[in-house]
Amino acid sequence: MPLPQWIKDLGKSVVDTAGNAASAIADNAAPLALGSAGLLLAKEGYDKVGEVGQDAYEALSGYTEDGKFTPGLAQELQGMFEFQPYTVTTSTGSQYGSEMGESTVDADGNTIPGQMNFGIDLSANEKLFQDAQLKRAESMFGLAAGNTYDSQGVDEEGNPLPSREQDVFNRMMSGIRPEQVRESNRLQGQLQAQGRLGVRTEAYGGTPEGLAMAKAQEESYSQNMLNAMQYAGQEQSRQAQLGAGMLSSSYIPQSQLLSGLQPGMTGAEQRRQSLSQQAETYGSTYASGLQALLQSALGQSGIAGTLGTGLATEALGGMFKR
Amino acid sequence: MAQELQSINLVAPAFKGINTEDSPLAQDPSFAEVADNAVIDKRGRIAARKGLSVITTNKTVLGSSKIRAIKEFKNNAGTTKVFSVGNNKIISGTTTLVDETPGSYSINADNWKMVNFNDNIYFFQRGLAPLIYNTVATGSSGGTGSTVKVLSTVNSASGLDDSTKFGNEILAAYGRLWTADFTDDKSTIYWTTLLSGHRWTGGTSGSIDISQVWPDGYDEIVALAAHNNHLIIFGRHSIVVYSGADNPATMTLSDTIAGIGCVDRDTVQSTGADVLFLSQTGLKSFGRTIQEKSMPISSLSGTITKDIIATLTVETESFRSVYHPEENFYLITFVGEDITFCFDVRATLENGSYRATRWPGTGFTSYVRQDNGTLLIGSVNGIGKYSGFQDNSGSYRFQYTSPELSFGDPAKLKFLKKIRPTIFGGEDSVIFFRWAYDFNSSSASAIITLTSNATSEYNVAEFNVGQFTSGQFLSRNNVNTSGSGGTLAINMEADINGKEMSLQEINVLALMGKTI
């Protein structure tokens, strides 16, 4: 690494000052001149220390000259430590990606770095699956949210549709109705054969058999009604569960993608750590070099200072001694 | 050479009753062509019926009307009261008739039917609010207290508000009242709750509409009867039988009979072992109808079927009947025609018919058999008993006409010489004998008077053993006759006026002539 200019200038000044002092001494005005040269040399050393600090500062933080910013170690390291965008792609084609947003400049002219953007992108198939599942889930939740006692809407002709409970009940009744009709017909035939179709009694309304059948039918009616209520409620719960399941399953591609992100993140972290270490090493090395230069410059300035101080002390001290 | 008189005995003539169905020539002499005001007596002879002994002495409430129905009410304590109807009134009593019609109750017809049930007597007639009488003030009867009242007014009466449900037929059976034959409903039967004749709703009351049960598709209920745990429903031309009627809710159709019905509710009489009723084709027996339903049904009035049909055709008023086991007869009266047919129920003839006789012009309009066996008869004179041998202190004509007698050979000419009837009773009666040949309507006649032959041994002791019986009057008078013919019909008529009379036999003495 070549010596910085200021160190070279410092050496030249020291030599120049020594030449001047010798010349002064030779001229017999030498003490004063030598003292002045010593002081000057000391000041030169002092000034060089400041210049070295300034140079070190600029080397670390960068500097602007003629309107052009020259980045220093900090800028260099900032670039090195900056987040490295990466993308994770699963086997089904879904992707997780991140990118740095564009920087902006505020009104004061400060540059505001862009935000980091993280995004996941499902594959087309998985997106379709997710959308479909979401729709199904919505549908199921819609069904589950409905009141089982309310009409389910209207039919094509605008007639109100039965409630879900009624619908279930109707289906249950339609299942047993043929047998009920057969039983009724059988009883009718039996009563007809017995000549009892026209029997009306206070105790039974009609015949005891008719009452028994009516009771049985009413019991099955009531039972079916209760079953329909129960079923409709259970169905509602089932629909809600199904909706929840579908909603949950709709996020499976996403969660699978996020699961696949972990290894990617680990790899990216490792890379980041590696880059970080490299930057640290670079910075450290850079700083070490700079430190060495600073120490060297400080040493040189110390020599100049010591030399200047010594000269001034000898020159001025001898003069006052006479 | 003089020919010997042949003696032909007609033993117990007409003991088989009237027969107007078979050919006169082929008939058994035991039949009669005419047997008016006659019965078959206990010895199987044709005899004059008993008369009407009127016991009513005050019939003011009846006016000039007739007693249309009689019923004896007997409560559980054994108290009896005879109810009758007539002159649009409910009447009680037998000697002095008392108006029992509830106040403010208007009656426009006397076609009541009365039934005893659970300490009450109920009065039913189509279109009129039913009535009740009992002697208890409270209880399951609803409580009326010794006066006839409208049934719907008694305590806890129910189901009696609809005037269209006031039935014409009422039956007390199986612990309930049953009613049918309404103004606008001829196929429904209603029954009360158990043991409460005033509660037609609630409890175990009910009804049955049998409009879909009639075997011929349509019929109208005329009468109801109970027999052997069956409810017998008589239509006009069919019969429906339900078994298990002790529980009406579950009673089931047991039988249906098409083609035989009942002409009127008042012709139905239970004999204990059977139910008799008058159909459009004569007197029928329910038991026999059930047995023979799939075969030609024999008629209990098979010997006079056409007579009955002819009378039925013209009858416009009402029918009344009674079964009287003590007299062994079933009487059916065509009130409008004033003809009563008497059927002897002790036995049937070969063709299954009862022996029948005819009582014309009696003026009998209603009957009831009292618990003590007395047969009460209603008429324009009030109420009387079937006893004695006068109708309301007057005479009535007993008449017998034999069928055409051929004596085994209708081809031979007979010269009738004498008729010698053996007649029991009828002492001092005047008998008219007529005889006619060959179906000729004109006849010769003779009159005899039955004179006493002093059969009494009253006050004549034999060996110090007193015999104080008057015996029975018996006459065997000869009637000299004339004329000749192939067949012969003999007629005997007598006015019965206080003396019983029966015809034991007729001995005919005739000469047999040449073949015609």
Task: Compile the SSE list and pairings.
The complex is a heterodimer of chains A (322) and B (516).
Chain A: H1 5-26, H2 30-61, E1 63-65, E2 68-70, H3 73-81, E3 87-89, E4 95-100, E5 104-105, E6 111-112, E7 116-121, H4 124-145, H5 164-193, E8 199-201, H6 208-250, H7 252-321
Antiparallel strand pairs in A: 1-2, 3-4, 4-7, 5-6
Chain B: E1 6-11, E2 34-36, E3 38-40, E4 46-48, E5 52-54, E6 69-74, E7 80-86, E8 89-92, E9 98-99, E10 113-117, E11 120-125, E12 128-134, E13 149-150, E14 169-173, E15 176-180, E16 188-191, E17 206-209, E18 221-227, E19 230-235, E20 238-243, E21 252-258, E22 269-270, E23 275-279, E24 282-285, H1 286-291, H2 305-314, E25 319-324, E26 329-334, E27 339-348, E28 354-360, E29 366-369, E30 375-379, E31 382-386, E32 396-401, E33 412-425, E34 430-437, E35 444-449, E36 460-462, E37 465-467, E38 474-475, E39 479-480, E40 484-485, E41 488-496, E42 501-515
Antiparallel strand pairs in B: 1-42, 2-32, 3-4, 4-42, 5-31, 6-7, 7-8, 8-9, 10-11, 11-12, 12-13, 14-15, 15-16, 16-17, 18-19, 19-20, 20-21, 22-23, 23-24, 25-26, 26-27, 27-28, 29-30, 30-31, 32-41, 33-38, 33-39, 33-40, 33-42, 34-35, 34-41, 36-37
Catalogue the unreliable spans of chain A.
none
Major beta sheet, strand line-up of chain A: 3-4-7
How much β-strand is present in the residues of chain B? 35-45%
- Assembly annotation: heterodimer
Nearest-integer average pLDDT of chain A: 81
The class by helix and strand makeup of chain A works out as: mainly alpha
Order of helices and strands of chain A: HHEEHEEEEEHHEHH
| Most residues in contact, chain pair and counts | A-B, 15 and 25 residues
- Assess the beta-strand content of chain A as a share of residues: 5-15%
CATH topology category name of the domain at 6-50 and 399-515 in chain B: Jelly Rolls
CA radius of gyration of chain B is: 26 Å
